[in-house]
Amino acid sequence: MTDTPPTQAKPAPLRRIGQVEVDGRLGWRKQVETLGLSLRLRKGDPQKGFDREKNTYLALQGKGLPVPDLLDVGDSFFVTAHAGPNLFHLRKGNPEHPEVFNNALVEAATALAHLHAGGFCHGRPALKDICWQDGRVTFIDLDRAGPGSADGQGYARDILIFFFSAITETGGTGPEIAAAARAYRNADTGGHWNRAVARAQRLNRYRWALAPLSKLLKNKREFRAILPFLGFMTREPAVLP
What is the pTM of this model? Predict the structure, then answer.
């Protein structure tokens, strides 16, 4: 009887996003996503999306904008500095200290205005894509980010996404939402708040159709937030040019 050589286990593949350390700094390594055919058809070429995000990080380095430092970069990966918990987890993790989240939300609104003043849109600034650490806000997941268009609609869309996300997560339009709105308006140098309000007013015309839908799907947080969100954005004062 002969001994059968042991079968060597294949090394586990690197996760698409994983925590690493670069020169003593904690960071997050992101590599190209591997997709099957069906997901590729739905989500598109993952290499193109990866390259777009990597190039955006490269373009924003050294500009003083609220994005994390790029610690390392290669053809198929990049590493961004750890930037603390995202605002979604910050709120869930500090229920006994709501002022921590409230302050971070106000700073995030100001940081979004600064990103816009720098000529860039995030594309999807939901609370899960905004981090908070040591009093600093950073925007992550820049796969949809890019320069704003001349008509300013990308900036307006950012504002609506940000406030819809905030109202969804907090469950209402409390004073922290109003404070965040004031913070954005105070830092808005391009009239983007006006465009966001105008866009919300156009959406509000369909409120009659959305009302029964939001009641029918009241167990879904996003649908419960639709009417409060539209009410908030359409009653918030616009900033006169």
Answer: 0.86
C-alpha span between 188 and 109 (Å, rounded): 10
Angstrom CA distances, 100 to 26, 92, 107, 202, stand at 23, 11, 11, 34
113-145 per-position pLDDT tens digit:
999 999 999 999 999 999 999 999 999 999 899
Cross-strand partners of 138: 131
Q: How many residues does the chain have?
A: 241
**Amino acid in the structure at residue 199:** R
Of residues 24, 147, 123, the one with CA closest to residue 81: 24
Under 8 Å between Cβ of 211 and 227: yes
pLDDT digits (tens, 9 = 90+) for 76-106: 899 999 999 999 999 998 878 899 999 999 9
At position 99, the amino acid (one-letter code) is E
